[in-house]
Request: fold
Amino acid sequence: MTARVIVAGLALAVMGGIAFGAPSIMSDYFMRIILIIALNSIFVLSLSLSNGFTGVFSLGHVGFIGAGAYISGILSLTVQQKQSLLPHLPDLLNWFSLPFLPATLVAGLFTALLAVIVGYPLMRLSGYFVSVATMGFLIIVNVVLINASNFTRGARTFTGVPLDTTLPWVFGWLAVTVFVLWRLVYSPFGRRMKAVRDDTVAASAVGIDVLKTRLLAFVIGAFFAGVGGSLYAHYLGSFSPVTFYFAMTMNLIAMLVLGGMGSLSGAIIGVICVSILSELLRSVERGFTIGDITVPALYGASQIVLGFIFILIMIFRPKGIMGEREFTLGFSGSSAKSNLKQGKVK
Amino acid sequence: MTHITRRTALGLGLSTAFILGTNGSAFAADPIKIGFPANLTGNAASLDGPMLNGGKLAAAEINAAGGVLGRPIELVVYDTKSDATVISTVASQLIDSDKVISIVAFSDSDSVLAIGPQIQKAQIPLITPGATSPKLPSQLGNEVFLACFGDNVQAAVGAEFALNSLKAKTGYLLTDIGTEYTTLLSDYFVKTYEHGGGKLLGQDSYKTGDKSFTAQIAKIKALPEAPGFIYAASLVDEVTLILKQLRQAGIDIPVVGGDGYDSPLLLQVGGKAAENTFFTTHSYIGAGATPKVQAFMDAYKAANKVDPENAFAALGYDAVKLMADAIKRAGEVDSAKIRDAIAATTGLDGVTGTITYRPGIAVPDKSVSVIGVKDGKLFLASEAAPTFVPEP
Reply:
C-alpha cells in the first residue's frame, strides 16, 4: 500500500513538473504531442471502463465526446460571439458565458445524464448487439449535431471556442480520471464489473445486478468522455460534427486494443505508442536522406504502416501490449490476480 | 508461435522510436522557408494535391530564376490528413521547429479555421490558395489572406449569369447543408439573385454524402410553374448524382453552381447528364485557354506528367508566386514586413486573374470564370466581375 502511494506520488510529481516546467524548456510542438497523448489517455481510459472492464464493447463513446465538446463550446462562447455565430440560440443560453472549469463540469454531467438515458435500454444487450446499438447512438449524435443548427451551426465549423486547454489542465483531469478509475476498477465494484464481463449468467447467479453494474460503468465512462470532449473543444478552438465520428472512434479503439483491454496502464501505454508512432511516421513519410540514400516523400504511407503494425500486434500479441496486467515498476501489482495471490481478496 | 513479451514489445517500440527520431533531414544552405501544410490524404485530397503540385511548380520556377532576395525558397510540406488535430500539431511544427517565415495553406475554410489561431498568435502571414469563405479574415485576424475570390463574389456572378445570360427570371435552390462552403454560397446566391429581380420558386436541402435525391426532385417536378434554372450549392460528388437523377426524371433545365464542381469528376461521373451545367470558378483551364494559362498548363504537364486537374493547381501556383512577390517587395525576410507587403499587393498578374487587395480587405478583387458543359466538353461561358456583391 505504502509503495503504491509512493509510486502515485512520484507520478503526480513528475506530471506536475512536466505540466508547469515544460513550457520553458520544450518547444510548442512537443508540448502539443504530450498534451494530445494526455487528452487521448482520458478518452481511452474512460472507454476502457465499459469496453475493457465491463465487457460492453461500446462504439458510441465518441458520441459522448462530441456532445461534451459542443455543450462546453456553446457554454464558453462569449455573449457577442453567440450573437454573431449562433443568432438563433434560445434565450435561456444566450445571455451568459461560462469559464472553462464550470463549462467542463457541465459537459461531463450532461454526457453522464445522456448515458443514463441511452444506457438504461442499451445495457440490457450483450456482445455484438450492444456494439451495433451504441454505434446507432453515435450516428444519432452526429445527425443531431448536424441538424440542430440553432445550437451547433449545423455541419458548418463551430468556431471561436477560447483556447483554454493547457498542459496543467489536461494533466489535472488525467490525474482525476486515473485516480477515480483506479479506485473503481480495483474495488469490489470493479470485481463485479469483471464478473459481468467474464460470465453474465454466473454473475447474476451470485446476485450481481448486471444492468446496474454495466450502467454505472457506462455512465462514469461517459462523464469523463464529456470532460475530455470539453478539453478537446478548448484545445482545437474550432471543430465540426465530422470531427467526432467513425475515424475518431476507430482511433480510440485501436489505442485501447493495442494497449490491452483490461489494464488502465495498458490504455495509457497504447495511447503513447500509437501517438508517438503516428507522429514519427508522419515525419518520416515526408521523405529523408541517410548518407547517399534519399527516400522520397510518400504521403499516406504512415496510415498504411500503422495499420500493418496493428495487424502484427494482433497476430503476435492478441491481448495487446499489457493484456490484463498493470505496469507497476516492480512494486506489488494490484491486478486482481496478484491480489488473489497475496491473499488480499476476502 | 513466436511470442513477443510485454518488455520486448515496449523495447522494440522504443528503439524504433529512437532510430526514427534521431534521423533528421538535411537541408540546403539558407533557403527562405515557406510552410505548405496540405490535406494530401483524407477528404480534401483531390483539391489539395493539385494545389501542392502547382505550388511546387511555382517554387521551382522562382528558384530557377535565382530565387528571392538572392536566396532560394523552400516549401516545407506536411500532410495534415484532413484532420483538425493534425493541423494544429503541424502548425506548431512549422512555427517552432521549422521556423517558417510565412505559410501557404489549404483549399477549404474548415482547415484554415483550424490553423488560424496559431498563426495569428505567432504573427506569421498566411495565404490560402483556395478557401473561399470571405469571412475568414474577420473570423481569424489580420494575418490571413485569400488568393482566391470570396464566395460572395462567385455566388453573385453565378446569379447574374443566370439572370443575364440564361435569361432565367425564376429559379430553384438546392443547398448542401453539410459544409460551411455550400451554406455560405447558397446565402450569397439568394441575396444577389433576388436583388437582381429574380424569383425563387422554392428551395430544398440535403447533406454531404447523400446518394438519393428522389424526394428533392419530386418537389421540383411538382412545382406549378417550371423554374428557369436550378442553383445547386453542392460539392462535385453530390452534384454528379443530382444531375444524373434530374436528367433521368426528364428535367433538362440548366444547373448552376460554384467552384465545388471544378473537378475532372464532373465529366467523368456526370457523363451525358452534365450537359447544360454551368459553374463559377477561378480560371478556365482547358482547350482554347489564354496564352498565360496555356503556358501554365504546359509547365504543369511537364512537371507532373498530367494536365492540371482543376483550378486549385493554378491557385496553388498563384499563391506561392504571390508570397514570393511579397517577400521580394518586403525587402527582407521578416514576417511583419511580408504581411504588410501582401496587403499592399496591386495588379499581380496570375494564372487565375489579377490580384489586388483593397486597403484593409484581405479578399482580392478578381474576375470569375463561368464554365459550361457542352457536348461532353468544358467551355468558357463568360468571364465577369459582379455588379452587385453581397456583404460577407
